[in-house]
Design a protein that fits this description.
Helices cover 25% and strands 34% of the residues. The chain has 681 residues and is α+β, with helices and mostly antiparallel strands. Strand 16 and strand 17 form a beta hairpin. Helix 3 packs antiparallel against helix 4 and helix 5 packs parallel to helix 6. The longest helix is centred in the N-terminal third of the chain and has 22 residues. 47% of the residues are buried.
């Protein structure tokens, strides 16, 4: 066999370029441990072992006023020949206050107990070793839970029911109930210590999970319901009367690959505002919903600088990036001639349209639109370096800056992002746009809170234009500023939040707290909005007249207090990163134990005390998850880190070329040198 000799120049070029490419890929992908990175579920597995223990998820919700009471029943079964331990990672609403879990095996019912996380884990492991059926519910993130069920014997069926409450908020006079069904694959950089849940296996694109999802929602309002629809599914909707409706989604596996989103509007675009009270055995709670004034559009909108930060990583490839392009087109098209702007694309690395922000001329806007149009999804999601660069850009003291982040949020560095934004944002506001069918809402909402901005969600391309229009409205004029809450004759305490930020959206102000003594006095809300001074007065006696039994307020207050503590400290899920605020950790733990609430530091554990006859070694099975609708296989890629646009083709400015570009340069250079070698030979 004849081997073509390699020209010395070619060898030197290969040696000089290859290590850089490999090093960058390793930096992004980390070590090659498939158990600690999202990966495909391979058909086959252990022979005669149940691979899909979760058979169904059934949601039942009762929405009354602004409060949703929800029960979620998960059914696990073992149709294989060996005993198993099932682990299932699933999402939850960012507002869910989980305050009850029970397990049923046949006719036996076990109510789970809330314990400190480590103690709950110990109880679960001891039960597992003692051949007892047990379940453990952990919180990995405020919107990501993990259920473990041990000793599911062949032929067993185990049902685990979660109970939670959440409050609904109207935005632009539209109420929205969201139940996420699948956790999207999370990207971890090499510098980050990966967590077990991040490495959950996924099915290939287009493959539905065998587990079905069904929903039944009863809606009751104090005002007539004008419009009711789902933005994500096609449920059956029937009206009992003008104030009551029933929504039913039949069971299917295809329904479990995206958030279930139910939206409704009340007659005359009214919102449920007012005061709810609960008189408990030891403590009393209240929830105040304040309707904001109408937005007044100013005659002149001051010039602003916009820095658009667009995620073009692998998980954004296809439908999410197509939607993001449409959104960016509308956002850029809405700029005023007095505005300035810049665009950053990020994946494994990041690139800027220009070294400094450009005037919003027709030519520059076309450059920005062309840039986003050329972008293709691929590579990791290095969000933190992108945020650091955007936040560090030089700023004109006389110009207000808005940083706009557009992403699906499939990363596991949420708290680091929040902390970075709080530390470095200066006078800028940060707005976050979540793109796709199963967005990481905790990241999007948290970044917006940390950046004193607003979150937006775009589920499908048809929503892009309207969302861009809402953003322009928010920027042009806040609805209410300088908000103050005053209590007269009403002994309120432990109110959350303690200070209310400016309101950009047409959304009610929510205050939750405790109260002592008699249900009397007044709550006075003041601020500036609607073109002048704003004041609203709420008589406590009026709220008391509607009843003093609203038990959901108890866990909702505790959940809000936990959120405030977590937002204001670097308390990580297991204290694995950053500085752990021990005082906040202790208070969160105490809140979880006192109010029976699932938190980062408290878990629910249930043990059936009847030992089982386990004849074979227990096998652990991770329930494979479907990829979210519109998310491709590239979301599970490891080392490819190209942002998809060459610097020379787009006018981008930035750091060194990425490994994909380096490889292309290398192949081209070798081809040219080989051609020259043949000619010389």
């Amino acid at each position: 066999m004849h081997i073509l000799p390699i020209h010395p120049t070619i060898g030197a070029l290969a040696l000089s370029l290859c290590p850089l490419g490999f090093a960058n890929q390793q930096d992004i992908a980390g070590h090659d441990d498939r158990s600690e990175a999202p990966h495909f579920e391979i058909a086959g597995g252990e022979e005669n072992t149940e691979r899909f223990p979760l058979k169904s998820t059934n949601l039942e919700a009762r929405i009354s006023g602004v409060i949703a009471e929800v029960k979620v029943e998960q059914t696990y079964a073992n149709t294989g020949d060996t005993p198993i331990e099932a682990t299932y990672v699933f999402p939850a609403s960012t507002r869910a206050a989980v305050h009850g879990v029970e397990m049923r095996i046949g006719e036996r019912r076990v109510v789970a107990k809330i314990k400190e996380k480590e103690e709950a884990k110990k109880v679960y492991e001891e039960a597992k070793r003692a051949n007892k059926t047990a379940s453990l519910l952990d919180q990995e993130r405020p919107n990501v839970f993990r259920m473990s069920v041990a000793n599911i014997l062949p032929g067993d069926e185990v049902k685990v029911t979660l109970t939670f409450s959440e409050k609904l908020t109207a935005t632009e006079r539209v109420y929205e109930f969201v139940y996420p069904t699948v956790v999207g694959p999370r990207y971890s950089g090499a510098a980050t210590a990966r967590e077990t849940w991040v490495g959950n296996p996924y099915l290939e694109e287009g493959v539905d999970t065998p587990a079905t999802f069904a929903a039944k929602i009863k809606l009751q309002s104090g005002l007539p319901i004008q419009k009711l629809s789902s933005a994500s599914h096609q449920p059956e909707i029937s009206f009992k009367d003008e104030k009551r409706a029933l929504v039913v989604l039949p069971a299917s596996g295809e329904a479990a690959n995206r958030d279930f989103v139910l939206r409704y509007r009340l007659a005359d675009s009214e919102v449920e505002s007012g005061l709810l009270l609960h008189c408990g055995e030891e403590e009393n709670f209240f929830l105040l919903n304040v309707e904001p004034p109408e937005r007044v559009r100013p005659e002149q909108v001051p010039a602003r600088e916009y820095v658009f930060v667009l995620d073009v990583s692998g998980s954004m490839n296809g439908f999410p990036l197509d939607t993001a392009r449409m959104l960016m087109r509308d956002l850029l098209g809405g700029l005023q001639s007095t505005d300035t702007f810049n665009v950053m694309l990020f994946a494994g690395e990041n690139r800027m349209l220009s070294k400094q922000s450009l005037p919003a001329t027709a030519d520059n806007i076309r450059r920005g639109t062309d840039l986003t149009g050329l972008a293709r999804g691929g590579g990791g999601t290095e969000l933190l370096p992108a945020l650091k660069r955007a936040l560090a850009l030089p700023q004109d003291e006389d110009t207000s800056r808005s940083i706009v982040v557009v992403t699906d949020g499939f990363v596991d560095i949420e708290r680091e992002a929040f902390d970075l934004i709080r530390r470095e944002r200066g006078k800028a506001n940060l707005f976050a746009f979540g793109i796709g069918s199963s967005v990481n809402r905790w990241l999007i909402e948290g970044m917006a809170r940390a950046g004193m901005g607003e979150p937006f969600f775009v589920l499908q391309p048809g929503e892009a234009s309207r969302t861009a229009e809402r953003f322009r409205d928010y920027i042009s004029s806040p609805v209410l500023t300088g908000i103050r809450i005053r209590y007269e004759g009403f002994k309120a305490y432990d109110t959350q939040p303690q200070s209310v930020p400016d309101v950009f959206a047409d959304r009610p102000i929510e205050i939750v707290g405790k109260w002592k003594g008699n249900a009397k006095g007044r709550i006075i809300v003041t601020g500036h909005g609607g073109g002048g001074p704003y004041e609203q007065v709420f008589e406590v006696s009026t709220g008391a007249g509607s009843g003093l039994e609203n038990p959901a307020l108890r866990p909702l207050w505790a959940r809000e207090r936990v959120r405030v503590l977590a937002d204001n400290s670097m308390v990580g899920s297991s204290g694995r990163r950053g500085g752990v605020d021990e005082e906040s950790k202790r208070e969160i733990t105490s809140l979880g134990l006192t109010y029976g609430l699932l938190t980062d530091y408290t878990s629910f554990v249930a043990v059936d005390e009847t030992p089982r006859e386990v004849l074979e070694k227990l096998r652990s099975v991770q329930q494979p998850l479907p990829l979210p609708q519109g998310v491709g296989n590239s979301a599970l890629g490891g080392g490819q880190v190209s942002v998809g646009v060459s610097a020379s083709a787009s006018g981008l400015t930035g750091a060194a070329p990425e490994p994909g570009a380096i490889g292309l340069i290398l192949v081209t250079a070798i081809g040219l040198l080989m051609r020259r070698h043949r000619v010389q030979g």
